[in-house]
Specification:
single chain, 9 helices, 77% helix, mainly alpha, 243 residues, globular, 0% strand
Length: 243
């Protein structure tokens, strides 16, 4: 297993293999997205309190989950890059930052749209909202720091430290509604229970898995481009360009 991972981490093998993987990520994304949209707008009922505005949840919640998931992936990849000096790990972390920032912004934007009719305000300095906003700032800080260095190796190390330190914000976001008085509703889904109508749950899961496949495809696409830039003087890159 470890030998396979080491082989896949080779720039040339990664570039060749990822090209075959991307279509297998895009196809489930398209299928799950179509099913998720159908379930969200046709099958899933309106909420007895929130009415049809609850349908924003089918984008808001998966986006919020993805913002946390991608940051954890980024931090783990950064740790692997620091410890084992694997270039691909740093690249995965680097290209994930902008994708994670996009999902975080989407979560905040849809949350504001959802919050206006529910709370009567576009924004409140609620614990969950504030900690999610801090997550967006962490993503933007990572991107800015990465662009501040001319030497990619130096930038990778500095960004890796920032990503690992920022990991402390993830449990704060997750448990904020339990630790502090919060306008934000608590989690309706946990390991032991699902306190929502089954069709709502199915719609939520379909969109959530669709977003994960989308992230995988986008991450590999951007990682391939970044790999070409970093390895531009390598023989295998010159052969690809020559072809």
């Amino acid at each position: 297993m470890w030998k396979w991972i080491q082989a896949f981490a080779s720039p040339k093998i990664f570039y060749q293999t990822s090209e075959k993987i991307i279509p297998w990520l895009m196809m489930p994304f398209v299928v799950l997205s179509l099913l998720g949209l159908y379930w969200s707008f046709v099958v899933s009922p309106a909420d007895y309190q929130q009415g049809d505005s609850v349908r924003i949840m089918y984008v808001h919640v998966p986006s919020a989950w993805m913002s946390l998931f991608i940051y954890v992936v980024m931090a783990v990849a950064s740790g692997i890059g620091l410890i084992w000096q694997i270039k691909l790990a740093h690249i995965v972390a680097n290209v994930s930052a902008s994708i994670g920032a996009s999902f975080t912004f989407l979560a905040l934007a849809t949350g504001s749209i959802w919050g206006k009719p529910m709370w009567g305000a576009w924004w409140a300095w609620d614990a969950r909202l504030t900690s999610e906003l801090i997550l967006l700032f962490l993503y933007l800080a990572y991107i800015s720091l990465n662009n501040a260095f001319d030497n990619p190796k130096t930038g990778d190390k500095a960004c890796a430290v920032l990503a690992i330190v920022g990991l402390v914000n993830i449990p704060i976001i997750y448990y904020s509604v339990e630790w502090w008085n919060s306008l934000h509703q608590g989690s309706s889904i946990s390991v032991t229970k699902v306190s929502m109508q089954i069709d709502m749950f199915i719609a939520l899961m379909l969109i959530s898995f669709a977003f994960k496949f989308l992230y995988g495809a986008l991450m590999l696409l951007r990682a391939r481009d970044e790999m070409l830039i970093r390895e531009q003087n390598s023989r295998w890159v010159k052969e690809i360009i020559g072809e």
